[in-house]
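--- STAGE predict ---
source: upstream dedup step, 1 unique chain passed
mode: sequence only
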Amino acid sequence: MQKHRTSIEFPDDLWRQLSSRIPARRRTAFIIEAVREKLIRESMKCLILCGGLGVGMGPLSKSIPKVMMPVGYKPLLEHTICRLRDQGLNHFILAVSHLSEHIIRYFGDGGSLRVKIDYSVEKIPLGTAGAIRNAEDKIDGRFIVVYGDVLFNGLNIGDLLRFHEERNAIATMALAKVEDASRFGLVSLDESNRVVAFREKPKQPISGLVNAGIYVFEPQILDYIPALTYCSLEEHVFPELIERGKLYAYPYNGYWADIGSPEDYEQVWKDYFTGLIG
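--- STAGE serialize ---
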């Protein structure tokens, strides 16, 4: 049996909290669980969907992919990769299509960001689910999927993964709270946070929980996605999972933005300069 070594560092302030709050008899178990989580995250792959045409952005996305549009001093996609890397994810798969050469040239193998990056290229548009199936040969075990045109802050990946595992779920989506859900539609949950319905977009502005475009999937999700054809998670896959009671949702209260229009992009820049986006 091959042995592997790992290391886990506790900053001084965290170690002091651990020593003061965790009884000595429980510290070993606590540290073992921390190491377990670290190993799981290091081996888990994150698929980021970057192939959209960015139609809603007008001329802004004609010459570069939407995920490469700058927010502050780096591309939108780099914000996402770095945020997930800082929570222990090291292996990324970028599902690319439209103007993919810009993405591949900039990120390469990921070494400059201290991560590993592979690419899954779509020759024809396959939709959000089709892009996942197209990357099937690069996926092994539980994996995370993130839409490349969302920005988020304050989502604890460890908590999301524990929530998913505790429910023995095939699919778990993160939900973000927004003040105006009229653009997105609302998600209805039962008492165990199982998704029971996607409600139509409200006609009037109303706050609520919406799909954040961040998911945890088991490999079984691929059984619900046909190969080599256009397929949407929202339109084709999720309704079947809801009917089978296999889709769960994890609400979180952190920052979230969906960049679907120039107005969204302008707001994200404002959020960056006010410190909402790290």
